[in-house]
Amino acid sequence: MKHTRKYLLGLIFFGGLSLIAIASVEPVESTTFPTPLDAYSDNDLIKSGEIMAVLTNRVGHTPFNLWASLIFLFAILHTFFAAKILVIAKKLEQKNADKMRADGRSEEEIEHNPPFLAEILHFFGEVEAIFGIWVLALAAVTISFYDWGTFKNYMAHSVNFTEPMFVVVIMALASTRPIMLFAKQILGVFAALGEHSPGAWWLSILTIAPLLGSFVTEPAAMTIGAMLLAEQFYRLKPSSKLAYATIGILFVNISVGGTITHFAAPPVLMVAAKWEWTMPFMAINFGWKAFLGIVISNIIYFIAFKREFAKLSSVSLKAVSLEESNVHHEETVPFWIILVHIIFMGWTVVNAHYPPLFIGGFLFFLGFAIATKPHQSHISLKSPLLVGFFLAGLVTHGGLQGWWIAPVLGSLGDLPLMLMATVLTAFNDNAAITYLSTLVPEFTITAKYAVVAGAVTGGGLTVIANAPNPAGQSILSKFFPGGVNPAKLLIGALIPTVILGLIFMGIPQDVHDPKHRNNSIAEATE
Fold this sequence. Notes:
The protein contains 28 helices and no strands. By secondary structure, it is an all-alpha fold. It has 2 domains: 2-24 and 64-158, no CATH class; 164-517, no CATH class. Helix 10 packs antiparallel against helix 21 (382-398), helix 13 packs parallel to helix 26 and helix 16 packs across helix 27 (486-506). It has helices at 2-23, 43-48, 51-61, 64-80, 82-102, 107-111, 116-125, 127-145, 148-158, 162-174, 177-191, 198-216, 218-232, 240-257, 266-275, 279-304, 306-314, 322-327, 335-350, 355-371, 382-398, 402-410, 414-425, 430-437, 445-457, 469-476, 486-506, 514-525. It is globular, with a radius of gyration of 24 Å.
C-alpha cells in the first residue's frame, strides 16, 4: 500500500507536469517573473496609504497575481481538511476489506489490493504533500498566462530550495541514536532536578531544546525536542488538551528560541545580512526576551496541568507495552561515535547555505553510519523527505505572494506591523514575511524590530508558520488520532504566542540600528 502511494505521487507529479508541458501554448518572449515590485510604478499610491488601490492596481497590471494567491489560499484551506480526507479514505479501505473478507479473500490479498479511490484520498490527505500537489495547479496557471519556459525558469532559478534540502539533512542527522542519547543525557541533568518525572522532562525539553536552536539551528532543535517529547511524554498518553498544549508551546518556543543568534532562525537569517544584525544585537534585543517568554509560558502551562502531570507520574512503566519498551531500550554509545556525529552536524550547520557541501557531508555520514551499524538505529529518510517536500512546495507558492505582502507591511505603524506580521506568519512561512520586509524602502529600525518580533512570535500558530514545524508534526502526529488538528494546534499555541508578543512589544526598548551606526562610522573615517 505504501509503495502504491509512492508510485502514485511520482506518477501524478511527473505525469502532470509532462501533460501540462505538452499542452502548453507556443513559447512567448521571455519576461521577468515574478513581476518585480518596482515594476508596478505605484509609489504614489503606497505613500498615500491606499492599500486597496495599490493591490487593485497590481492585479490590473499582472492578473496572474490574483490567481497565484488564490491557489495558495486553496492550498492552505486544503491543510485544514486533510484529517477529514484521511478519515474518508480509511472508511473506504475498511468497506473494501469487509467486502473482500466476505468473498473469502486472505488478509494478504486485502492488504495488497486497496481501492484506488482510497489511495488517491490518502495522497490528498497527506499534509506534507498538499503544497506540492497545488504546485501542479500553479504550474498550469503560470503556463496559461506565460509559457512552460517561464515556470521552468522560476522553479530552477528563482525559488531557493536550499532550506528544504538543509532541513532534510539536519533532521536525519538530529534523529540518529547517538545524537538523541547525547541530547537525552544533557536534558536528563535538568530533568533530574524533578526526579525524572514526566513533568520534569516536559519542562526540561520545552525550555532547553528551543534554546539549543540558536546554535544547532531550529530544525535540529525541533527534531530533538519532538523525539524526546515522544519518548518521555507523549507515549504516556496525556489528555487531548495537554497534548495540543504541548505541541503548541513546542512550536512557539522553537520559533523564538533561535533568536539568540543571527544565523539559526530562518526569519532572522533572511534579514541579518542586509540589516547588519549581529549576534550581540540579537542577544540584546531578542534573545533574553525570548528566554523570558519561554520560561513564563512553560510555568503557566505546567501549573495549569499540574494535576495531570501528577497522574502521568503515577503511570507505571509496566503499563507501557513490552514492544514499546524494547524500542526504547538503550545501550551506551562510545563517546567517539557521538563526537563524530556532532562534527557532521557542525559541518552541516556551518555550510547550511551550500547544498553541495552539506549534502556531500551527509553522504559521507551515511557511510560512517553503516560502518558503525551496531551503535546506530535505523536511519529512516521518509519523514525528512516528506518535510522537505512540504517546505519546497511552501517556498514555491510563497515566492509569488510579495505583490500583496510587501505593501501591507510597509503601510503599518510599529504595533500594527508586529500584529500583522504575527497574523500573516500563520498563513505563510515566517522567513518569507521577513524577507519581503527587506524589500520595503525606508523601514525604520523600530519597524524592522516589529516585523521580526511578529514573525517569530507567530511561528507556532500553524504548521506552515515556521520551517521546523512540519518536522515536529511529522514526528508527533502518530500521537494524535486522525493527525494534528489545525484549529486545536492554534488554540494550544495561542497563550504562549500572546505572552511572547507582550514581552517583545511591551518591554521598553531602545533599539539602535547597527546599519546606520556602521554607515556613520564609515563616513567619519572618510
